[in-house]
Amino acid sequence: MVVWHWVQQHRLLAVLILAFVIVSSAGGTAWALVFRTVSSPVGLREALRIYRREQTEKMLQTLRDHLPSPGVYSYRTTGGESLSLPGMARSFPPTTSMIVTGGNCATVSWVPLTQHTETTTECPGPGGGFVAPRIVTQESIAGTDTTSTLACPATAYLLPPTATPGQKWAATCALQSPAEKVEMAGEALGQSTMTIAGHAVTVEHTRFTLTFDGSQAGTNPTDFWIVPSTGLVVQEKEDVDVTSGGVHYSENMLSMLTSLTPLR
After folding, report:
1. pTM value?
2. Which residues contact 238 (CB under 8 A, 6 or more apart)?
3. pLDDT above 50 for 33
4. Which of 18-22, 34-38, 39-43 has the lowest mean pLDDT?
5. Is residue 116 a contact partner of residue 69, using CB atoms and an 8 Å limit?
6. What are phi and psi of 85, to 5 degrees?
7. C-alpha pair distances (Å), 31 with each of 11, 36, 81, 239
8. Nearest CA to 98 among 119, 121, 129, 124?
9. Burial 47-60 (b: 16+ CB within 10 A, else e)
10. Cα separation, 20 vs 24, whole angstroms
């Protein structure tokens, strides 16, 4: 969910890449072999291995707190991400995994690629709501690994208390490295029914928009379709449109749950 900020931390390398491309444009495409974006899908077996490594005796606590049941959930996925640099684009695999581990709060990790993971801490809030106090995105590209961490207050709702259509809320979050403020705006878009593997499920549709206005500028809106009784994300749609250091990053993703029963 947090915008990927490799360019911000490696502005010089991005400039060198562009310079190298310009100098070598008449001499073949050897540069692509060096700077192409690696894409390693995370399969179900690997997702289960990650879940079993991280999950302990916290499952009963998770169930008592009305959080998503721990396990590995599968999603049908479309989309990808790219930079405005040659060779810097990759697609997400058609099936991706969401790893949920439990405790007083749930840790929800979307792991489409080894080189791209998004982890959201989801906690039960007042009045049947759900809060996202911590969001971590990990990226790897051009041989460099980066981690972006966003810390948010108790008003950063994934689902607000007693949600009603048109309800809005806001919070100011803190981004680490670079240390900047990020504004978050939320909106409840109404209740609907979705069918998952033949089962009708009532969901609340909310939108969670992050706005960056510092060394990186742009927006990161994410739509969630959430089961209000457990906080399970049935469908998620994310768009990122951010510029940093003269380089544009974009991401689009749509993931829909294929089964209400997780694997363990």
Report:
1. 0.79
2. 1, 79, 220, 221, 222, 223, 251, 252, 253
3. no
4. 18-22
5. no
6. -135, 145
7. 18, 8, 20, 29
8. 119
9. bbebbeeebeebbe
10. 6
